[in-house]
């Protein structure tokens, strides 16, 4: 990484990943409510919902981690190149906020699907 644009590019990448994750979090909470209210309660379908929720939570978590990693790398590049680090810092803050929102939404979705498993897969 030798380009003077590295810090800004990594910061923008971090901002985009964080924004997507931050916008996805409330949608996941709405999904959890809809799954609880309207999902089919056949044991196989409930098991499928639980596995899909686990996979989705893992993918979202990886996106959050990647966004924070891009931001940290951007901050280091800015420091190394004596360049402004504002975009990378904004990406870091957005990544932290998005990961926190995603964690809360993930807990809600996983609790919903695990509760459905306990109730309907006996």
Provide mean pLDDT, rounded. Answer: 94
Unreliable runs: none
Classify the helix fraction into a percent range: over 70%
Overall 3D geometry? Answer: rod-shaped
Q: Determine the number of helices (DSSP H or I, runs of at least 4 residues).
A: 3
Radius of gyration: 18 Å
Distance between the termini: 55 Å
The SSE order reads HHH
Backbone structural class: mainly alpha
Report the major sheet: none
Structure summary, number of beta strands: 0
Q: Bin the strand percentage.
A: under 5%
Overview of the molecule:
- This protein has 122 residues and is an all-alpha fold.
- The protein has helices spanning 6-38, 43-81, 86-120.
- 35% of the residues are buried.
What topology does this entry show?
Layout (H helix, E strand, L loop, with lengths): L5 H33 L4 H39 L4 H35 L2
Q: Which properties best describe this structure?
A:
single chain, mainly alpha
Quick overview of this protein structure:
The chain has 122 residues and is mostly helical. The chain contains 3 helices and no strands.
